[in-house]
Amino acid sequence: MSVSNQPTRAVNEPTDMLETSFDIQGHAVSRPWWKLRPRRSMRVPWISIFIVLFVLVLPAIFADLITSHDPLRGVLGDRLAPPFWMEGGSWTYPLGADKQGRDILTRIIYGARISLTVSGLTIVIGAVVGSTLGLLAGYFGGWIDRFVSWLIDTFLSLPHVLLALVIVAAIGPSFVTIVAIIAITIWASFARQVRGETLSVRETEYVARARVAGTPPWRILMRHVLPNVANTLIVLATLQVGVVILEESSLSFIGAGIPRPNPSWGVMVADGRDQILISWWISFFPGLCILLVVLSLNLMGDWLRDFLDPRMRQRGR
Amino acid sequence: MSLDLPLGSPSGLSTAEPVLAVEDLRTYLYTRWGTTKAVDGVSFTLKAGETLGIIGESGSGKSMLALSLVRLTPEPAGRIVGGKVVLNGRDVLELTEKQMRDVRGKEISMILQDPQQSLNPVFSVGNQLEEAIRVHDRDIDDAEVRERSVNALKSVHVPAPERRLKNFPHQMSGGMKQRIVGAMAMAYQPQVLIADEPTTALDVTIQAQYLRLLKDLQRRTGVGIIVITHDFGVVAETCDRVAVMYAGRFVEQAPVGEIFDRPRHPYTRALLDSRPKVDLKATRLQSIEGQPPSLTDLPPGCRFAVRCSYAIDKCHLEYPHPIEVAHDHVSACWRSEEVPWESP
Amino acid sequence: MARYILITSARGLLTLFAVSILVFSLARLTGDPMDVLAPVDISREDEAALREKWGIDKPVPQQYLSFVANASHGDFGPSFKYPTESAGSVIADRLPASIKLGLVATILTLSIGVPLGILSAVKRGSLVDRVAKGFALFGQSVPEFWLAIILIWFVAVRWNVVPTSGINGWRSYILPSIVISIFGIAALLRLFRSAMLETLSSEYVKLARLKGLSEFKVVWKHALKPASIAPLTFFGGIAVRMLTGATVVEIVFAWPGVGLLAYEAANARDFPVVQALALFTAAVIVIMNLAIDVSYAYIDPRVRLGQKAVV
What we know:
The complex is a heterotrimer of chains A (317), B (344) and C (311).
Chain A: H1 46-66, H2 104-140, H3 142-156, H4 160-171, H5 175-202, H6 205-212, H7 217-253, H8 265-271, H9 281-308
Helix pairs in contact in A: 1-2, 1-9, 2-3, 2-5, 2-7, 3-5, 4-5, 5-7, 6-7, 7-8, 7-9, 8-9
Chain B: E1 20-31, E2 34-46, E3 51-55, H1 62-69, E4 78-87, E5 90-91, H2 97-103, E6 108-111, H3 115-118, H4 125-134, H5 142-155, H6 161-166, H7 174-186, E7 192-196, H8 204-221, E8 224-229, H9 232-238, E9 241-246, E10 249-255, H10 256-261, H11 266-273, H12 313-317, E11 323-326, E12 329-331
Parallel strand pairs in B: 3-8, 3-9, 6-7, 7-8
Antiparallel strand pairs in B: 1-2, 1-4, 4-5, 9-10, 10-12, 11-12
Helix pairs in contact in B: 4-5, 4-7, 7-8
Chain C: H1 2-29, H2 33-37, H3 44-54, H4 60-71, H5 87-122, H6 127-141, H7 144-158, H8 174-200, H9 203-210, H10 215-227, H11 232-244, H12 247-253, H13 258-268, H14 271-299, H15 301-304
Helix pairs in contact in C: 1-14, 5-6, 5-8, 5-11, 5-14, 6-8, 7-8, 7-12, 8-10, 9-10, 11-14, 12-13, 13-14
């Protein structure tokens, strides 16, 4: 939505990378993540980490080692084989097979690779571009800020799905296309967040002192602003992975994302749609994976947010 | 009940019966890290027209004590686990919540520390003041509410009250806001007014003014005031009696003069010594060594013993219950006789 | 205040221009509509005539200028796919279906999301709270298209309670509106919960209790009003969705709204419709942003009356 000129609420007091940061009452003031230790009773979301690791990350990396089936070509004779616990199922196709006889489990594993790479790339691009623009806008203000804010508003006004449909109608769906489309739409969230944080941090005494002392801007940005922004950036990035996975799978579902026969989870759900009544497993399991992974990422992101911000409440703006 | 504060009505120092009698009050906080004994056996009385100061460091339990008196301890962790709070002859700890709501604002009120935070920013000041009036008088009509709000503002010396009623909190200075908070608290002339660090968030120039206002209100209405503070200056300015609080208990209670001239507890002595003295040539600020004990993990003996320069073995083992060391002066220390009157 | 509105509107207009240029060029990139819309064996003369009729024989910048000129009158040209209709009327035909669905979804979202969020904060740690938080997590993580399919499979087919697609009476609204609103409910719930938690622990709420106010009043007057400010931006998002159609859901349910229209038009390379839709969507977003900013200013007296201290 629109970019207001008020700083975002989740502002942490600035910290120098070298100073200890405790206030008078002995409460910890927020420090950059690499300096933190978990509080005694913080409940680390182990299950979520486990899920993300074993459903998304590891399969993505070790796909070829885990499974021997070909994700793209199936055995027609085994088409529509049900999962192993059902009548007619076997361990050869643990989660069943699709219309072309391709193993669902294998395709899910390779699909993880797609989800991971798409989200990884888009977030890296989006975060780098977004943070840079956000930092510049927040710190320098003036016409830079006005222009970047307007840019952010404009890109947030773009109709994502329509845009994707149009582009894909032009140059056809492909991996590069979807990365570009999603990156174009998410950089603005990073930019807005970073800009807000930068605005707040800039007004603090800490930074004011550095400016008065004549420190060059890039140094201030790197040493003072960035560490404070880093915390929320990490949280945002974690949460955005889930968002991107949802977005990519939606677009792939309607044909405007990853092209067939690649096993994007979204494509798989679309493939199984007309079989839903009998061969429900074709659509069910990929979608379930999306749900589990995004759920876990959200839990992790929330936990990270609490972990990195010892003060739950911020007083004043 | 008319809100016109009768000028010239005598302060109630002549009445013998205290308006507030607290006996062995205990408030514990139950959290997953342990049980914090925020208030652990506090007893005192307050007479009409009298001002009691409660002084202590942060973490001593002062604010929790104040909240306990009005039964607004943070839920669900905070619970009042024992004691009596007798207000106007009734133990308020025995009341139902509904009954307690009638008591709050009417018989006992509180002023909070930071006026920037204690007024709701999205409602006008008049709205919030009128609310304070309507809550205890359902059938009042608009005109009378208006009149009473204006009078309330006048009683705290707010100029142009009719205009002020329409203003929003952010349009006013801190001092003015705090005065309005005072007006809200005094709307029904309660018997007890608790002022939790009333001037800490105000400009130094305004602080004295505000304290004078409180005394003025007291003179006119006979309200008993409890001032919670960490500042001896405030104590000197306003209080008749002082209680020094440490780690959930009162360690010393005495008339104000006695506290300054003849403190009988090492902690009080240490607090007095740690004040910056403008006239002497001190090279460094004296602070009290060590940290207050964790309220979840209290020692069996005196809680100040670890930091005390007079501590003997007995102090660490057995808790020194308050003993009377002079007229109307109690101290909880085995060695209260040895505490020097003046700093060495 | 008036000045503020003016400036924001100007920026919005600029945004619309940018979006229109972007979509215009992208639409032209999609290749020749001829390939998709005209019959394969069309003669050269007919083809040239068609091109001229649609104005696509002229150079692109010129096309854009005439587009802008016409658009400002609301004329978006004839639809390529439905030659007898103008793009504008095609959209106008399909809009009511989206709006109706969006309205139902919005009502659902507000009536469940807001009270649950408030309740969750007031009764923090209770069963209600935990269920609400769990639901919120689920709602923000579930892929809509998958949920839609699963629901259709069970509710529509297995149990035969509602129709599987299209608009056939009031029952058809049930599944699509549920799917659309799930994410909104989850987000609104979380926003209200966290905003309420913050206001409930504020000093002014403490003071309200000190006055002897009933807990009901404390929550619904003092805690709620300041807490409503933050979720306001989200209301805007909800409204936008309501007006511009939830494309994926419409596709799954074959709901004849503007979302499905976008899908069809893009595939058919129906430029005018695509452009008009894009502009419409962007315009809705821009206007909604403006409305939100103005509402912010109105609700928060600090912004409305300015920060000047009237000591």
